[in-house]
Structure formats: C-alpha cells, structure tokens
Amino acid sequence: MLIRHAEAAGDAGVCADVYAPFVTGSVASFEEAPPTPAEMGSRIARLSATHAWLVAEHDGAVVGFAYGGPHRERAAYRWATDVSVYVDGRFHRRGVGRALYATLFELLTRQGFRVACAGITLPNDASVALHRSMGFQPVGVYRRIGWKDGAWRDVIWWQRQLGPQDVGRAPEEPGPPVRLMAPEQRA
Ligand SMILES: CC(C)(COP(=O)(O)OP(=O)(O)OC[C@H]1O[C@@H](n2cnc3c(N)ncnc32)[C@H](O)[C@@H]1OP(=O)(O)O)[C@@H](O)C(=O)NCCC(=O)NCCS
C-alpha cells in the first residue's frame, strides 16, 4: 500500500467514485448528492493548501482517501481540524483507513494543529471503532441533528490531541499552523 498526497486533477474522479456510495447508500455522509469530479477536485485543491488530502493506493489504484479541514472559522479555532476518511468498500478491514489516518495525523501534527475532531453519524460501528482505536475520545452526541434517508440522525463527535498536551494557559501562544503545499501547487 502507498499513501501519498492527492492531486486535484488526477485524483478527483477516483475520490468522487470512492465517496459516492457513502452519499447515496448510507448516512455516513450528510451530503445528499454525490459531488462531481470537478467539485471533488476543487475540494482537494482547497484543503491541500491549508491542511492535507491523502490517498491510499493498492496495486496502483486509489482505494481510499483522508483529509483535514477547518473545524470552525473563528480565529481561536485555528489549531483545530476536522478529519474524515473514506475507503472503497471492497478494501475494508485491510488497514487502509488506519494507514491513511496515521499519516494524516503525523502531517497535521507537524503543521502545528493541536486537535483533530471527527463527527460520525450513528450508527457506524466501523467508524466508531476506527476512531476509538486511533486515540479519539468521545465528546458528546448531537441528537437528531440531521435528516437523511427518512429519519432524524444523531452525530457523535470525537476529539484527539495532535500536539503537545498544554492544559489551560500555555506559556505562550503557539505559532499558526503552517500551510502545506502539494507538489503540483508549486509554480
Ligand atoms: C470507517 C472506515 C474508514 C474504516 O476503514 P478500514 O480501512 O476498513 O479500517 P481498517 O482496516 O484500517 O481498520 C482499523 C481499525 O478500525 C476498526 N474497524 C474498522 N472496521 C471495523 C468494523 N467493520 N468493525 C469493527 N471495527 C472496525 C478496528 O479496530 C480496526 O483494527 P483491526 O482491523 O486491527 O481490528 C471504512 O469502514 C469506511 O470507509 N466506512 C464508510 C465511510 C465512513 O463511514 N467513513 C467515516 C466517516 S465518519
């Protein structure tokens, strides 16, 4: 297996293909229409510039992806990142999700992010188990926060420390997370 940065042009279509079944056939995503490859490409480009978007390859084919993005827009949240991971159903339970997340967290930590946050629509035993096994702790449950597939859905939120474990007042404000530039974005 190979983990690498996604390329907005080259990987948009396959990321859209991996993601689509979780939009149309499950409540894992709260989107209702699968994003087009063009939309996926613009998401990859946008988030690769500030966080990271990684893909996993198996025998030369992309079988999953994971990315970080802003948690909230207000300034004090700038060290917090939301993370997501999606793996082609034919490749579940082979360590792809874990490898993507482990690499993503290493990068986000080096960038200076301090907390990773993840929201999981319930039920999703696989995702809950993955996040728990990767050191996330449950924060709480938004009850009936979204309507999908004919029912109100609960979302459980998790968080995981990425950097040093400062508690309360830190000695000084940390520098802002550094931007991460994908190879293709370098002029
Ligand atoms: C959640 C998901 C990303 C896991 O990816 P994966 O590549 O199958 O996971 P891995 O093989 O790396 O598993 C890592 C660990 O997660 C846990 N896990 C993963 N799938 C599990 C399952 N079906 N049941 C129980 N535990 C599971 C296990 O602890 C596993 O470690 P182990 O295999 O050593 O026991 C995958 O199931 C998926 O794409 N689901 C649909 C999309 C989704 O829900 N994404 C998350 C949105 S919040």
Topology summary:
Layout: E1 2-5, H1 8-24, H2 37-50, E2 53-58, E3 61-70, E4 80-87, H3 96-111, E5 115-121, H4 125-133, E6 137-148, E7 151-161
Parallel strand pairs: 4-5
Antiparallel strand pairs: 1-2, 2-3, 3-4, 5-7, 6-7
Helix pairs in contact: 1-2
The structure holds coenzyme A.
Task: Write up this protein.
By secondary structure, this protein is an alpha+beta fold. The protein has four helices and seven strands. A seven-stranded mixed sheet has the order 1-2-3-4-5-7-6, sandwiched between helices. Strand 6 (about 135-150) and strand 7 (about 150-160) form a beta hairpin. Helix 1 (about 10-25) packs across helix 2 (about 35-50). The longest helix has 17 residues, at about 10-25. It is globular. The protein starts with a strand and ends in a 26-residue tail after the last strand. The mean pLDDT is about 95. Coenzyme A binds near residues 87, 92, 120, 126 and 133.
Write a concise keyword list for the protein shown above:
globular; 7 strands; single chain; binds coenzyme A; 4 helices; alpha+beta; 7-stranded mixed beta sheet; 187 residues
- Counting DSSP E segments of at least 2 residues, the number of strands comes to 7
* Helix content bin: 25-40%
Helical region count?
4
Q: Indicate the mean pLDDT.
A: 94
How does the major sheet shape up?
7 strands, mixed
Biggest sheet: strands side by side, in what order?
A: 1-2-3-4-5-7-6
Order of helices and strands: EHHEEEHEHEE
